[in-house]
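Deliverable D4.2, example record:
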Amino acid sequence: MTTTKPLWPWKLLLAVILIGMAAGIWGAVNRIDYTWRWNRVPQYFFYESEESITIPFDGRVEQIRSEGRMAVLTLVSETGDKKEARVEADTLRVEEGEELFEGDALGFVHEWRFGPLTTGLWTTLWLSGCASALALVIGLLTGLARISRNYTLRGLAALYVEFIRGTPLLVQIFIAYFFVGTVFNLSRNVAGIGALAIFAGAYVAEIVRAGIQSIPKGQMEAARSLGMNAFQAMAYIILPQAFKRILPPLAGQFISLIKDSSLVSVIAITDLTKSGREIITSTFATFEIWLTVAAMYLVVTSLMSQLVFYMERRLAVSD
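Output generated by the structure prediction step:
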């Protein structure tokens, strides 16, 4: 009969360590001369903008009618052209029959808009998503080339993997933007996505190669004995089994790619990191913004990890 060791001492030790770390951080923060302004952070997620509505020509206000909280103005130019403008009724600044010059304010419209942190996060997500999809294709093709019987394909794939893995991502981004982008007239977004995809594709290729080689050779032989050709055996027998095994490292690579995407800010792509840097430049709220940016990256990668755990559990059911 086996006895289960009590877990509570280790939980207590963990709690003590975490409390100690929190106390240490709190003590370090209190030693620096810094005024925290967390109340300024929410406006960088969402903010209420005030847009001034102006008359586009010299003319007069012919009619004003009410539609709920909005006032609809019928404007008539000196040549007789008519145009309608909508402003919030409580911000209306003109009256019926009033003569106006081009650019005079009629009123205001308020609406909620995304702040720089939200738009930066969105840029990071779609940039990483595009790069991940492209990296998966590159990695799959390169991984298959790595195990090909064709010497040239194997050599090219090995050269690509070694070159990419042996050079820093930052240097690759500079080469993609300043050299390749200049030669082929690519935008910075295309250059950034391409650099990230090529970088991640090399690592995905090694993951795919290792996953395929982990499948027993008997699986391929059995598929070929059933009359399948090499492509069918790879597509219907080998790759589905390999996918289950490579899912965790593959997910880890894509999660890492989200964090690596912060480097594209060096070529002026306004992702989450660059948005944070621009906010700091204008507000000097250094600690609050960088901690917020770090928390946003952490939330995204944690959600990705949970999604991968869910997929692993779903795939494990079919084993």
